[in-house]
């Protein structure tokens, strides 16, 4: 099984930015934990702060990966284009958020991606990624 994780803008700063919201662990450190926990599957990781690069990655893997876990960051609430890219691929996509977006600013309560995703997981910290991977594995 081949899972692609895609992180959007500012998620390269995990572990150093807004620790009260996002914690103090870098994504790279957490990724090693995921790869150890799910040693029998391949977990690929991609992060970009650029909307078009995220779309290109979705196009690249969206017909070959077994599942995609995406945290599009603020693009979740603004990008029709990323939502359209998810709609245009065959691979199931799960939208994740580290924080509970519904406890935050009102603009974060709306997702332009969710309608094209298999599901949405929010508010479980980094564990949101693990929950998404487990769902993709178990179908």
Automatic annotation (TrEMBL):
It catalyses: 3-dehydroquinate = 3-dehydroshikimate + H2O. The record marks 17 as: Transition state stabilizer. Pathway: Metabolic intermediate biosynthesis; chorismate biosynthesis; chorismate from D-erythrose 4-phosphate and phosphoenolpyruvate: step 3/7. Substrate binds at residues 71, 77, 84, 98-99, 108. Keywords: Amino-acid biosynthesis, Aromatic amino acid biosynthesis, Lyase. It comes from the Bacteria. The active site is at residues 22, 97. CDD domains: DHQase_II (cd00466). Its EC number is 4.2.1.10. Catalyzes a trans-dehydration via an enolate intermediate. Homododecamer. Belongs to the type-II 3-dehydroquinase family. This is 3-dehydroquinate dehydratase. It comes from Mucilaginibacter gynuensis.
């Amino acid at each position: 099984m081949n899972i692609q994780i895609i992180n959007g803008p500012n998620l390269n700063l995990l572990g150093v930015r807004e620790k009260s919201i996002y914690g103090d662990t870098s994504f790279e450190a957490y990724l090693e934990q995921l790869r150890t926990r799910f040693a029998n599957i391949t977990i690929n990781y991609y992060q970009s702060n650029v909307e078009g690069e995220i779309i290109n990655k979705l196009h690249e893997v969206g017909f070959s990966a077994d599942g995609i876990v995406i945290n599009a960051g603020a693009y979740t609430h603004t990008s029709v284009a990323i939502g359209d890219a998810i709609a245009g691929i065959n691979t199931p996509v799960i939208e994740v958020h580290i924080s509970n977006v519904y406890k935050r600013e009102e603009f974060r309560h709306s997702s332009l991606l969710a309608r094209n995703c298999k599901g949405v997981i929010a508010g479980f910290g980094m564990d949101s990624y693990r929950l998404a991977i487990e769902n993709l594995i178990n179908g």
